[in-house]
Every structure is written in C-alpha cells, then in structure tokens.
Protein: Shikimate dehydrogenase substrate binding N-terminal domain-containing protein
Amino acid sequence: MDILEQSYTFGRSPLGEDLATAPRDVYIFGGHIAQSLSPRLHNLMFAARGVPWHFALCQTTDADRFAAKLQDDRCLGNSITMPNKVAFIPQLDDLTDEARAIGAVNTSFVRLDGGGRRKWIGANTDCVGIREAVLARFPDASTTTRSRPAMVLGAGGAARSAVYALWRWFGASEIYVVNRLKSEVDALVTSFERSVPGIHLRYVSSLDEISRLETPRIIVGTVPDLPPQDEDEMRCRALCDAVLSRPDQGILVDMCYMPSPQTALYTTAVDKGWRVVSGTEVVARVCIAQNILWLEQDVNEATVEEVLAVVQVSNDGKPGQDTLGAPVAKL
Structure:
C-alpha cells in the first residue's frame, strides 16, 4: 500500500472543488529552520500544480502554537522537524503505521471522519525519503543490501527513521548503531523491540568489536556535521572511518546537509570509493512524499526533475544558495 492509499484508511479527502482557487497554508515547525530547503521545494511544487498554497517557516518548539494552527481551516498540512518530532505527537489524532513504529513524526495531514470532522494524522516520511533517494540513485540497492548488515550513526529521531527504512525496505540482517551515548541506543532498541518484533539491533562501541563484524552494505548518517569535541565523539568518528576504509565498499547516506551537503562523512566516503547519497537528495524525496499527502496527487516527472535540480545547486555550492532560506512566519 503506498502512502496516499494508506492515508485514506484514516478518512476521506478534505479537498474540495475549489482546489485551484482557495488559498491554503502549510508550515514547517522546528527549532533551527532558517536555512531549510523545504519552503523553496514545496512552493515550487505548489506552483507547478497551479494551486494558491503557501509554505512558510514557523521557528518554534511551542506545542501550543502548533495546536493553534491545527484549528485553522486554511491549514491542511505541516512539516515537523527537530526537536518537535516526538513532542508534538500528543497534538495529533492518529498516526500512520510507520510513524507509530518509529515513534516520531515529521509530517501531518488532514482527513475527514464520517461526520466531516477534520482529523490530523501524523506520518513519518523521513523513512520514505531515505528509501526513495537511495533507490533513485542505486536501483539495485534493495537486492544488494538484503540479508546483509547495515549501520546507523546516531540514535535520535532521524536515526529511528533510518533504522525502520533499513529493516523494512532494505532487508538488513542486523543494524549496527554507533552513538556517543549508550543510554540513547538502549532507548532506541527498547522502542523498536516493542514496535517491530524480530528486528536485530546491535550497539557497537569499540574498534575491536567493529573489526570482527561484517562490513555493512549500507550506512546512514544522522548526526550534525561538527568536528568531534570529546572522547565519545572521537570514538564514533574512528569507528565510522574504520568501516569506510575497508575494501568492500557499499552505500552511504548522510542525512545532514547543513551548513553544506559535502559533510566530512560524505567526502570521506567519496574518497574511500563508497557510493553516496546526500542529505539534500533525501530532503527532496521527503518533500515529494509530503506534497503527495497534502495535495493527494502524484508529482509529475518534470516537477521531480525540477526539485532535484534545486537540490543539486545546493550540492554543488553554486550561486543561488542564498535563496534556499525563507522568512520565518510570524504566527
């Protein structure tokens, strides 16, 4: 079942015949979002479909401000980013299977119940974005990674989405988790063992341990692109470098794309001969999935290519990057 078909299990469409003329609002809620790519990508897709919808930033971690927007009939969707992916869940009426299993949301959309009441549904399209970005670049990935180990760097909300994607769609036999704090990994493992029976997760904490394990066929990085500051962060960096230096390279996805998509992890993987997917490519696919849920239409191929061209500008560092941000909405 695809994400749009699944969405109708929660109710019927809220869209009327006035789709092309009625202004609608969509927001992104997060703590540090001034440089987000989302406004440009979503507003591009709205324009391509000829709808008077507007996507704006709301830089806040205040759940009450989020709840207030859910009551606005003009608002038909939201993007939810750090640190709100768990904190805003209680404001929603229901969750998709992926969001419930992962324990975090990055998207909300509206469906109508039998009485015509608006219901806000929380979804996780981060996992979909990982899947689609990898398969778009490397169509063989779903077979070359199957029944082989994978690895995730980090243990936060993005890491949870990565774990789910690697287990469900790439068939990982086991997922190594590298993170500075074991307590965060323990919480991740406990959560997934409840929500995804049969999943195999392993906390890896030393060079000796990683040296005895099979090379992961796909790695997803979810941590900020900052120089390691303490012993634990240096240990994590050393573990990752040790894997990337092996002769049997696989695929690396780095979900981080700020301040530049060419993160230290990305460039190291390229230098070592790994096949790579940038964070901007994941963001583009996440935005496409969100747009499908809000406008209830597939995105045509020409628009997909235009969206990907925007993120390629960001990847290449060419002139025009200063247009990727957007004014913060005053809500």
